[in-house]
Each structure stands twice: as structure tokens, then as C-alpha cells.
């Protein structure tokens, strides 16, 4: 009988860990970096991905216009982790009518 109680407690503990992790992941799906929600980065992904990206969509330009571009300079090295090619940022901003800071 002791083994069954231990097994039930272990299963309950595992369930609690899984549920806690699921809640944490759900809450952490978007963070704000330089006035941009990481979820909104997806709106610009096509325009900064690959060697010949398409022009940015209006939603992407709206995101870019709210961004703190000076702040983004410090994250430039991490943009590849989000599937974005840093060398495509300056052309994207120009197509959106935004003057990029010299660091981008």
C-alpha cells in the first residue's frame, strides 16, 4: 500500500510540474524588446529573411515605426535567433520611410 501512495504522490508532483511549466510558457510567449513585442517581430520576418526578401507589409512598417531603433542596436547580434538577417534591416526601414540609426 505504501508503494501505491508514493506512486500517486509522484504522479501528482509530475502533473503539477507540467501544469506549472505550461502556465509559465503561456505567459512568456511574448516579451517586449525596444518597444516591440517579440510576437510582432513575425510581422517583419519575411522582409528581413533571406537574400532577396519581399518588401515589408504595412503591419511590419507599423511595428518598425513604434520601435526604439537605438535600443535595437544592442540586440542586432541576436536578430538571427529570430530568423532575421541583420543586413536586411536598413533596407526594410528605408522602404518603410524610417531613417535608421548608424548602428543598423
TrEMBL record:
<dbReference type="InterPro" id="IPR044741">
    <property type="entry name" value="NsLTP-like"/>
</dbReference>
<protein>
    <submittedName>
        <fullName>Lipid-transfer protein DIR1</fullName>
    </submittedName>
</protein>
<feature type="domain" description="Bifunctional inhibitor/plant lipid transfer protein/seed storage helical">
    <location>
        <begin position="34"/>
        <end position="103"/>
    </location>
</feature>
<keyword id="KW-0732">Signal</keyword>
<dbReference type="Pfam" id="PF14368">
    <property type="entry name" value="LTP_2"/>
</dbReference>
<dbReference type="InterPro" id="IPR016140">
    <property type="entry name" value="Bifunc_inhib/LTP/seed_store"/>
</dbReference>
<dbReference type="InterPro" id="IPR039265">
    <property type="entry name" value="DIR1-like"/>
</dbReference>
<feature type="signal peptide">
    <location>
        <begin position="1"/>
        <end position="30"/>
    </location>
</feature>
<dbReference type="InterPro" id="IPR036312">
    <property type="entry name" value="Bifun_inhib/LTP/seed_sf"/>
</dbReference>
